[in-house]
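Let us practice reading a record.
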Amino acid sequence: MVLISAEPGVGKSRLTEAFRQGLAAEPLTRLRFFCSPHHRDSALFPILGQLERAAGFEAGDAPDVKLGKLETLVATGTPAEGDLSLLAGLLSLPCEGRFPDVELSPLRKKEKTFEALLRHFINLAQQRPVLMVFEDLQWADPTSRELLDLTMEQVERLPMLLIATFRPEFNAPWTGQPHVTTLSLRHLARDESDELVRGIIGDPAALPSEVVDDIVERTDGVPLFLEELTKAVLETAHLGAVPAVSLAVPATLHASLMARLDRLGPMAKEIAQVGAAIGRDFSYELLAATVRWSDATLQEVLARIVDAGLVFQQGLPPHATFLFKHALVQDTAYSTLLRGPRQALHTKIAHVLEQQFPSVAETQPGVLAHHLTEARMFEQAVAYWAKAGRQSAARSAMFEAEAQLRRGLQLLSDLPNSPERKRQEFELQVTLAVALMESKGHVHPEVTEVLGHARSLIAETGATGTILHFSVLYGLWVAQYLGGERSAALQQANEFLSLAESQTQSGLLLVGHRLVGSSLIFTGNYPAALSHLDRAVALYRPGLHQELAFRFGADMGITAMCSRALALWHRGYFDQARKAADEGLRQARESTHRHTLAYGLVYVGLMAGSGRWAAEAERVARELVSLTREQGFPLLLGYGLLLQGTAMALRGQGEAAADRFHEGATAMQTTGVNRSEPMALCYLAEALALNGAVAEGLRVVAAALAEAQASGTHWGDAELHRLRGDLLGRLPSTDCIEVETRPLLLEADVASLPFCSAGGMPTRRVDTKPLKPLDDGFAT
C-alpha cells in the first residue's frame, strides 16, 4: 500500500494518474474510488460509484437489466451464496426473488456485505493484478473507512497495489506497517519550479524570463498553481503581445483558473459551472439533460474544456463521463456562480434527477437531498434526508444515518411551524432513535432524549394510536427495561397495553401483554406476570402476527411462550414450565428471525439457572453465545456469557465463572447497558465464595440487593437472601444471633465494588474455607 499525503495542488492526483498511465499497457484490473466533500455522510459513496461503473450501469437501465449486469460482474469470480443478494441490496436493486434473500440483523448484514465486497476484490486479484486507487480519503464516509481497513488486511497477501491520497489533516492509521509506504509530497524548490514552467512553455522565446521568474515567485512551489498560471499567461500571450509582468501573471491560483475559464468563452464557463454543481465527476447524460443544448454544441464545448486540461474525459457521448482535473478546479468553477444562479442550477439538477434519473433518487437519495438543500427547497430536501437516513440505517451505516437524519432535523427549523413540519420531525426523530440504538446502545441518554422529543410530538401530529406511536413507547420501554429501571419499564408497558386495548389490532394487544408480563417477572410479581403472558400466548396467531418481529425486534408470540416458562417455574409449575420452554424454543428455531431465537434462549436460560439445572443452563448458554456471535448481537451475547458463568458456578467452577461474568458484563457495557442484573451478581457471589472469597461474595450480594431495591428488580430477592444467610454462616463467627442480625453493607461500600462501578472484578482473596456447590435438589 502506498499512502500519498500532501496539501491541495501539490500533486497527489497528478502523481497517481501518471503512475496509472505508465501501466496502461499492463494487464491489470483498475479500480478507482473518488471521495467527495458533499457525500462524506453517504455510506459507501465511493464504493457504490465504482461498482456501478464496473458493472456498466447506464441511466436508462431498468432494475432487471442492472441486476443482470451486476450478476455478470460478480460471476467473473467465485461468489459465495448470498453475495449477489447483498450487493444488489447495497445498490438498492429489488431482487424480486431472483437471488435468495439474506435474513440478518443490520450489523451482521453489514459484516456480510463487507465480506462479499472483499471476496469480489480478492477474486479480481486472483485473476490478474489489481491497482486500486482511493482519492481524497479526508472526505471518505465512516463506512468506506471501515471497508478500507478490512481491505488493508488483505493487501499484503494479494497481487494488489492500493494507493490512497489525502490531505495532511487526515490521520492515516496504517502508517508504520511493513507493507505500507508513505510519501509526503513537498512544495517544489525554486529550481524545480523553474524547470516545470519552462517544460510547459516548451519554446524559451514564448515568455520573457522576468515573467517566468514572476510565475515561480508567486506560486510558492505548488505544481498545480505553477501549471495553471503558466497556461493562463501563455493563453494571454497567444492573444497578442505579453503585457507588463504585473499584469501578465495572476496573483492567485483562483484568479488564474478564473481567467482560463473566462478565456474559454461563456458557453464553456457555463458547462464547467453546471458540471461543478453536479460534482467532481459527472456524466454526459445528466449534463445534457440539465443544459438541454444540442449534442453538437455541447460536445464541441466539452472538447474545448477537455483540450484545455481542466477536465478529463472517459468514453464517448452519450455514455461519456467527465472528471475535473482537481478538486480546486471544480471549486473555482463553482465559486463563479452567484447565489441566485447557483440556487436555480441546483433546482434544475434536482428536477432532472427526479424526473429523468429516478434510479438515482431511489439508490442515492443523499445526492438529491444535497441538491435540494443547496436549492433551498428545504421541505423536499428533508424528505430525501429522511430517506437517505433510513437507507443508511438499513445498511447498518449508523454514523452516516445519524448525520443525515440530523441534517434533515436542522433544515426543519427553517420551515414554518405547520402540521406537516411536525409530522416530518416526528418521523425523523423515530428513525434517528433507531439509528442511535444501534450505534450507541438502547440505554444511551441520547436515545431516551430523542424518543422523548418524538413522544412530545405524538398528539400534535395526530399520531396517537399509530404504529409509530407504539414504536416510541416500545423504544422507551426497552431503554428503561435494559437500563435496569424495571418499575419505570412496568409503567411504560402498562401505557402501551392501555393504548393497545383501544385499538382493533390483536397483534398490538399481544405485544402489550407480553411487555407487561415480562416487566412483572422481574419485579417479582409472578402471578400477575403469568396472567398477562397467558393472555399473550392465547392471542398469538403465527400467520397473522409474525410480521411484528420486524417492528418490535422479535416474534412477540414466541418470546411470550419462553418468558411464560420462566414465570411458570417461579410459580412452582415445573412440568408446565419445561413444556412451555420446549414448545417456545421449537417455534423459535423454526422462525427465520434470529433475534427471536436469541431472546427465547435467554428466557429459557434464566429458567434453567433459577432451577439450578446446570447441564441445561450450559447447553442453552452455549447455543446462545454461538448464535449471537454469528449474527452480531452484542447485547444478547453478553446475556449468553452471563448464563455461561451461571452454569460454571452451578458446576462449582468458581474462578472460570467469575471470569465469564466479567466477560459478559464487558460485552453488555459496549452496548450502553452498564447496570448489573441482581441475579447475575448473585451467581457471581456464589462463584467468589466457591473460591473461598466469602467476604467478597457477601459484598456482591449486598450490591445485588441494593441494585434490586433501586431498580425494582425483585425477582431474585429470595435467592439473594438465602445465599446471604448461607455465606454469613460460613464466616468465622459462631454466634447465630450475630449472623442473623449482621447488617448489609453501607451504600458507600456497595458503590465501591469494582464490578458494580467500573465493570471490573473483585479481588479473589481467600477469607475462609471454599464454599461447596449449592444443591437444592434440582441440579442435573
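A brief commentary: The radius of gyration is 33 Å.
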